[in-house]
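Deviation from plan, reported transparently: coenzyme A complex.
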Amino acid sequence: MRGPGRIAVRSVAHDGGLATRPPSRYILGVAGSRAHCSRGGTPVARFRRIDTGAPIAAGSSLLSDAETARLARLRSADDREAFTAAHLLVRSCAAALVGMEPRHLEFVQRCASCGRDGHGRPTIVGHPDVHVSLSHTRGCVAAVAARSPCGIDVEMIHRGPPPRGVLTEREAAWVRDDPDPARAFTMLWVRKEALVKAGIGTLAEVGSLDVLDPGSAGVPATMETWADPPYVGAWVVLDRAPT
Ligand SMILES: CC(C)(COP(=O)(O)OP(=O)(O)OC[C@H]1O[C@@H](n2cnc3c(N)ncnc32)[C@H](O)[C@@H]1OP(=O)(O)O)[C@@H](O)C(=O)NCCC(=O)NCCS
Ligand SMILES: [Zn+2]
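Because the crystal trials were delayed, the predicted structure below was used instead.
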């Protein structure tokens, strides 16, 4: 494990049943600087495994009308659970960051592509200095809140051949040399998605976004990657907004 950029996540190991991070032996890699920590507190990052048969329904009254409408359009119960869990988890992260109750925070989304509300990058109304990000996949969700732009992604380990054109040559060689290339690929992929969500480039550009080393993406940031098989995730907090 690389060490210099590592920061502590301001959460206890378990918080009302929400595991905030897996045991440290699962932390795969850490990159970045910690400069932003002095500018506004420690980010709150949490992930949560969703156990089948343990519905997330409690707390779903916190969802906005827009979220409730989107939830109703999801056909799979697993997707509904993951959506709800992620949208509640991001509120819990933001609430912990600002020291308020989740029910007092208004969560909204606006899409930069189509300009509509109800999907796209999430924000917290009335807290322009609070940045949030969330991710959901069947069986696992993750969220982060910070005082500067942030992104998080969680994925099930991609067991097929890696998609073409999404890794730099150096990353591709690194994945090939890893004893578990599928896990190695997914670890890089979640870093890239986390950076995209934080505002660094687009999904179409990730093939040239090197995320192997601290600072290799050219952006001062703190990044942490974890593995909780079959899931891998990463979060990133930028030192400042991209220019
Ligand atoms: C953002 C994106 C990278 C996430 O990909 P994903 O791995 O499939 O899904 P995840 O669960 O990890 O993340 C989804 C969450 O990212 C957030 N998100 C969506 N767009 C975002 C953006 N532009 N920036 C930051 N976060 C975004 C949302 O909170 C979303 O959750 P929700 O759908 O429950 O509201 C991908 O959805 C994407 O590229 N979206 C842009 C596509 C676009 O512009 N569509 C236009 C629709 S009109
Ligand atoms: Zn849109």
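The chain has one domain: 14-238. We consider this an acceptable substitute for the interim report.
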